[in-house]
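Dear Dr. K.,

Following up on our conversation at the group meeting, I've run the structure prediction for Protein kinase domain-containing protein from Castanea mollissima. I'm pasting the input sequence below exactly as I used it, so you can double-check it against your construct before we proceed with anything downstream. Let me know if the numbering doesn't match what you have in your notebook.
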Amino acid sequence: MTITTIFLSFLLLLFGRANSESQLNDKEQTVLLKLKQHWQNPPSLSHWQNPLSLSHLNSLNSSHHCNWPEITCTSGTVTQLRLQNKSITQTVPPFICDLKNLTAINLSFNFIPQEFPKALYNCSKLEELDLSQNYFNGTIPVDVHRLSGLRHFNLGANDFYGNIPASIGQLTELRTLKLFQCAFNGSFPPEIGNLSKLESLQLAYNVNMTAAELPSSFTELKKLKFLWIAASNLNGEIPEAIGEMEALEHLDLSKNNLTGKIPTSLFMPKNLRIVYLFRNQLSGEIPQVVEALNIDVIDLSDNKLTGSIPDDFGRLRNMTGLSLFFNQLSGKIPDSIGRLPSLIVLKVFSNNLSGTLPPDFGRYSMLVEFQVADNKLEGELPEHLCDNRRLVGVVAFNNNLTGELPKSLGNCNGLKIVTVYNNRLSGDIPSGLWTSLNLSVLILSDNSFTGELPQRVARNLSRLEINNNNFSGSLPPDIISWKMLNTLNLRRNKISGPIPEKLSNLVGLTELDLSENQLSGQIPLQLGLLKLTLLNLSSNHLTGRIPTQFENDAYASSFLNNLALCANKPSLNINNCNNSDHHKSSKVPSIYLHLIVSFVAAALLRLVVAMISIYRKGKHQLDSTWKFTIFQSVNFRESDILSGLTEDNVIGSGGSGKVYRVVVNDPNNIVAVKRIGNNRKLEQNLEKEFHAEVKILGSIRHSNIVKLLCCMSNENSKLLVYEYLKNHSLDEWLHRKSRASSTSSSIQNVVLDWPKRLQIAVGAAQGLYYMHHSCSPPIVHRDVKSSNILLDSEFNAKIADFGLAKMFKQGELATMSVVAGSFGYIAPEYAHTTRVNEKIDVYSFGVILLELTTGREASYGDEYTSLAEWAWRYIKDDIPIVDALDEEIKEPSYLEEMSSVFILGIICTNKEPSKRPSMKEVVQKLHKSSQPLVYGEKIATSLSDTSPLKNSKRKSTSENDEEILASIV
Ligand SMILES: *[C@@H]1O[C@H](CO)[C@@H](O)[C@H](O)[C@H]1NC(C)=O
Ligand SMILES: *[C@@H]1O[C@H](CO)[C@@H](O)[C@H](O)[C@H]1NC(C)=O
Ligand SMILES: *[C@@H]1O[C@H](CO)[C@@H](O)[C@H](O)[C@H]1NC(C)=O
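The predicted structure tokens came back this morning:
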């Protein structure tokens, strides 16, 4: 049999089955195809095809609509439509309910702009409706109860406003109701309490709600497991009956203005696991009786709670996190809490807790965070704190602790931060602590520690403050191993000997305080090369000239009370080196002057020191609290993120900081975290970049723009948490090979084939198009380059890194204070004027098109030219374009498309901004060249699709993904 006869007999078979069922099927398929057309044929639905159109014979088997992944059929009729994240930008048409048997519609994570689609009332069997994460607006209609069969209803993260109608309480079949993060005002209707079958109620982040109490009727929801009403302006007291909600598992009423006592029955529901009441105004005591023995996390921080920590918390054997900071709790921390076997995080700082710490903390659980600072605790730190080697932080400053640091801290390589200043601790530092692998902050100030300074310190140590102790000995001559230090404070110890010359090699040092020691000898002149914002060498025995760089008023008090120091400039509070008299003590007035000056200076110094320590005190408290801002609903907590910021998890680093890959909760839930700054005050430009990124990414959503899930900031660090994109950046795929010749062969073998590259070009273009044309005001990225195009597991492009992005008024030329961008991608007008518009992004995008078609790097070219100029010569000198195309992927069937995209790249990189197309035109052009492939419609390409060569190539790409990434990372 020939292939043709096989097809023919197949066709006959198909048409032969023309019974009534298949007619109905056809009708449903017609509705689906009409739907696709109504949505203007989004590429995500390109596989929705009529199997009977002859051009798709090759895909007959998979083309029955019941086989489309978005469709579920039951007994041959369409019952579920799952269209989340399909880049749908059009409205929901009434004819969707011609699919009479629909029970579930999911349109979440699209861009649907519309009022509530009342036409869905005609979907009479609807049980599940998810419209979340779209641009739906207007009010929820008062007759919404006509969707009477609904069991699951999600309208979260839309622009709905106005009142939530009381009639929602008539949807009595509801199991889940999610109305979080909209623009509702008014108050939550008490009628929700009638939904007796409700299991999950999510109303959080409706920040514009009128301040009102939590309706007490909600406590009638006896089947409710999940109650989330964070940040929605609740005030008044929590209803006492909340403890009678026997099914309750997850309770989150954080970030409201709740007042009064926590109901005594709160910890009664047997299945309760999560209790988040943080950031309210709750007062009185924490309920003492706990029946919910499976509790996982209790977070009551940032309230006004008084009284003691309940003994019953010591019975919570599954508790992993206890957070009670920023309250007025007093009394002793129950010893039984120290013995809890699951405890990972303890945060009880900034209370009035007293007595000794439970001695068993760290002994029986995998303790990670131990934060007890700013209380009235006494006695020793728990001896076993780091027995299980998971500890990351010991934050215990501002207490009355005595004794030595626990020995276990000397063998604790996960430690990042140890701040125990302002206690009465003594003894030597466990020797391993100085060099602990990951330690970055060590603050031991204002204690009575003894011993000598270490030769080496941890390779990441950036802040070492041990002032006001009894450390002795000298600074190590080979101090260069302290190379990551930003802050070094050794003030008021008993350190003697010279200042080592190599101190000047610590180029990151910005604060250096060696005052009030017994240092002698000359100040190494090279020290003047450091870029110090604070220098204090006063009250030592230093001699000789000070480095000339310090001869200005900024350092006027840096050298006080070193009688044998001198300077060339008389203005400093220092002897003049050229004044030969300065050694003679015969000049009485001068001596008086010295005395007066040193007296005044000493008084001033004391004042400054006092002020600094007050400032510091405030600062350290802030260190341990993060401002957490959520842009998308997330299922992790700040501690999940913080605990993942380990060196092992670093997947990249750049000018602004490191990027980490963090697994939160379960292995499939991965986020990328960008950390800006490193434990010291951020430079101004980094701070600006952070704000630009948060402002822009926090306000836009598009499937081709990386999702910012949340951000966290405190005074010293900013964290941006994004969706994690498995395939990293386009740059890595295109150019990694040419850079690292020694990489493993798996990389050498795998190249992005042309269909994937085209898909990436289309995606990135859509993202930029959205920024330039759909955002108001338009957003110009200013740093478009292949390393800022990230790829998900399906190679969908997402634009990232908005640190330089700017919002522009329409049509306006903005003046940029600095030229931003990256070599090879910078539009020429940028070099001679700082007034630019969105055409600079078009230029950079053109360079990316050239990279995709030629496989060359943006900086490729002769000594003075770039890839763009190199490519232009093909036009100017009339060289055949095929010669420029990437040999690795050049196949005859691709040549036409590759050439036209190459030419588009050249058009985009026109030197004249006005001659470059807009991103809208670019998208249209790309769509034209991509359609045959994306839709797989052209018979010619479809048939060649079956050639074994190409199939095996595709397959190997996906099979090797894991391996490749392992080596790229
Ligand atoms: C809906 O399902 C019923 C029962 O399975 C079936 O008889 C009917 O034809 C279906 N309706 C449509 C429009 O397919
Ligand atoms: C809803 O949004 C659309 C598109 O942004 C707008 O045209 C329309 O006026 C809005 N409708 C309401 C009721 O706000
Ligand atoms: C809340 O209301 C204010 C003032 O009406 C408005 O500017 C803001 O955008 C609203 N916020 C949300 C999330 O709708």
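Two things stood out to me. The mean pLDDT is 82. The domain at 728-931 is CATH 1.10.510.10 (Transferase(Phosphotransferase); domain 1).

Best regards,
J.T.
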